[in-house]
Write a structure and sequence with these properties.
The chain is an alpha+beta fold. Among the domains are: about 140 residues, no CATH class; about 110 residues; about 130 residues, Jelly Rolls. It contains 23 helices and 14 strands. Strands 6, 7, 8, 11, 12 and 14 form a six-stranded antiparallel β-sheet that branches. Strands 2-1-3-5-4 form a five-stranded mixed β-sheet, with helices on both faces. Strand 9 and strand 10 form a beta hairpin. It is elongated. The chain starts with a helix and ends in a 12-residue tail after the last strand.
Length: about 600
């Protein structure tokens, strides 16, 4: 039953799960004429992962094309295989109840399901790491033969070729074997390691280049002090009731018999170290060199923590005929949390690239040639993939390599009454803000994981929202060397709601000389103490400019802060740092409320 749930949860309507950013990145790096180009350009120069999955996709795409179901299928099947391996490892070292509960947890929780539905290194790396760990029992308890040596070596090198942290995890398992395996198998173990090293040898130049490159692109921040707590909570679906059910198993056991299962303490220490050592290494590296620690980093070690957790449940407190009921209840609770609390399958099957294309298609049918369409993506080809399936060939594509100036130039030249703008890959909020400057009357909006869509019209915003809201200006609208700071603009408290996610400010300026050092400041202060909590300034990089007029932008994301937006005092003003001459013509506040699905696959909502 557990394997059936694991299979259904990973394969159910898999063809409807669209490609995500990382998958597009990998798939677009399969279009090379030779294997050498694949390694040199597709892996060494443009990837931070080992070559294993990229090489597999290179040949797999040639067989199945860019088809969602067939591309994702091998990874989903390895996710199902990981559930079985968790059961096998748990049963080998502990007991049937530990094995069933551990497998049920991995089969039905969002963290485990999510990464096994992606054509990326996670499911494959976890599968080979668990396959390697599953062989340890044999090496500890019997004399191995040549077949075991070969299988162990091949599994180790496959794990190493999937992901940097599956490589580290495999190395940790091998190190444990060297320290703890019986003497009768030491020679065989060294032979298996030698075999793995020989096979891995051609990959060493790739590994060395990626090691020197360091992090994963500079977009990831250092981990907060509560990272581990957040990760564990995420592992339990951000669900207090699922966490309570798991913990209650201990309480029930203690009520029946005041002792936990304490057999095999050495194995527990090994399992715990297999989780904590990668966590500690990634934490130290992230703090002292460059950030690499994120939830996906621990995907390969998390099953060992799950087994460790459930290994303490004393089977003597339950009768064998009660196992089925207990495991079924836990499995259904975990699956129910994934479906209803986390809305996992809804979010996976309705994502930014494909859903935005559908929204654009519907808007095109409604407004015809009176609609302009634009999208912001990491690379234009990602957005165009699903748009072209909807026969949308006139979408203006912007990417991270372009600027607000480019978008402003395009908007300035539009003469349509309506405009649809969407972004994926978490675009700077100023891009959304400038689209509202030109098309302020909101008609519709929608959001998906890491994506947002806005359909709007020209003219003034509808009452009563007045968004963007015009800021009253003083009579003195001129700036020069004698006027460095402008008046403080305070947003109407009715604009700021508990779930406000973005506050943007746009200032329209007229000038004779090109402005270069003007700043549009937003300050955030604690409402109780008036202490400054945050200061930011929109600079020339966030402005649209001509020789005589410009629009300066600054946008604040409240998701950066712990409290809700109503707990802060906010003010904005112009800082004429270099004493330049200009006239402020008008200014607007723009507010967008929280869209929980934007981070819904990773954060609570």
């Amino acid at each position: 039953m557990i394997l059936l749930v694991a299979a259904i949860s990973r394969l159910w309507q898999l063809e409807r799960v669209p490609f995500m950013h990382d998958e597009f990145s990998a798939l677009f790096r399969t279009r090379f004429d030779s294997f050498g180009e694949l390694i040199r350009i597709g892996v060494v120069e443009n990837d931070s992962h080992p070559a294993g999955v990229q090489v597999f996709l290179y040949y797999w795409v040639r067989l199945v094309g860019f088809n969602e179901f067939w591309i994702k299928l091998p990874f989903a099947l390895m996710g199902v295989g990981s559930v079985y391996l968790v059961y096998r490892i748990s049963y080998q070292w502990f007991n049937e109840l530990t094995a069933l509960l551990s497998a049920a947890f991995i089969a039905a929780t969002q963290y485990a399901i999510f990464y096994s539905q992606l054509a990326r290194p996670y499911a494959a790396g976890q599968f080979f790491v668990l396959l390697l760990a599953a062989q340890c029992y044999l090496w500890f308890h019997s004399k191995v033969n040549r077949k075991s040596v070969f299988f162990f070596g091949i599994t180790a090198v496959l794990a190493a070729l999937m992901h940097a942290f599956s490589l580290a995890q495999a190395g940790l398992i091998v190190l444990t074997m060297l320290l703890c395996a019986p003497a009768q198998n030491r020679k065989a173990l060294w032979l298996a390691i030698l075999l793995a090293f020989i096979i891995y040898l051609p990959h060493i130049p790739v590994f060395w280049h990626q090691l020197k490159a360091g992090g994963i692109g500079g977009w990831l921040g250092k981990p907060d002090s509560d990272f581990l707590f957040k990760f564990l909570y995420y592992g339990f679906n951000y669900s207090w009731y699922l966490l309570a059910i798991a913990c209650s198993l201990f309480c029930i056991s203690l009520l029946i018999s005041p002792k936990l299962n304490v057999r095999r303490p050495a194995v527990r220490w090994i399992l715990l170290s297999w989780f904590l050592v990668p966590l500690l290494v990634a934490w130290l590296y992230s703090v002292h060199r460059t950030p690499i620690l994120q939830f996906s980093t621990l995907y390969f070690s998390f099953p060992f923590l799950v087994i460790f957790f459930f290994s303490f449940i004393n089977t003597e407190n339950y009768k064998p005929n009660q196992y089925g009921l207990l495991v079924t209840l836990f499995l259904m609770a975990a699956l129910g949390s994934t479906i209803f609390e986390r809305q996992h399958f809804k979010m996976m099957q309705h994502q930014g690239f494909d859903q935005m294309a559908l929204e654009m298609s519907d808007a095109r049918k409604k407004f015809s040639d009176q609609l302009a369409l634009a999208s912001y993506n990491a690379t234009p080809e990602m957005g165009a993939f699903y748009q072209q399936k909807q026969e949308l060939y006139d979408v203006k594509h912007f990417s991270k390599h372009q600027t607000i100036q480019d978008l402003g130039d395009w908007l300035q030249n539009q003469d349509t009454e309506f405009m649809g703008f969407g972004w994926t890959d978490y675009a700077p909020a100023e891009w959304e803000l400038i689209s509202a400057v030109y098309y302020p009357r909101m008609l519709d909006e929608n959001a998906w994981f890491n994506a947002y869509w806005r359909l709007a019209a020209r003219g003034q915003p509808d009452e009563p929202s007045k968004n963007p809201a015009e800021i009253p200006l003083s009579q003195n609208r001129f700036f020069n060397s004698q006027r460095i700071y402008g008046d403080a603009w305070l947003p109407d408290t009715s604009l700021i709601l508990n779930k406000t996610q973005i506050l943007g400010v746009a200032a329209f300026v007229r000038h004779e000389d090109t402005l270069r050092d003007l700043k549009l400041v937003i300050e955030l202060r604690d409402r109780r103490t008036d202490s400054l909590l945050h200061w930011q300034a929109g600079t020339i990089q966030n402005a649209w400019r001509t020789d005589t007029a410009s629009i300066w932008l600054s946008a604040l994301r409240f998701s950066m802060f712990a409290k809700d937006a109503k707990q802060y005092d906010i003010r904005s003003y112009l800082w004429n740092k270099s004493g330049e001459k200009f006239e402020i013509q008008k200014a607007n506040f723009y507010v967008r409320n929280e869209q929980p699905y934007i981070l819904g696959l990773m954060e609570p909502f």
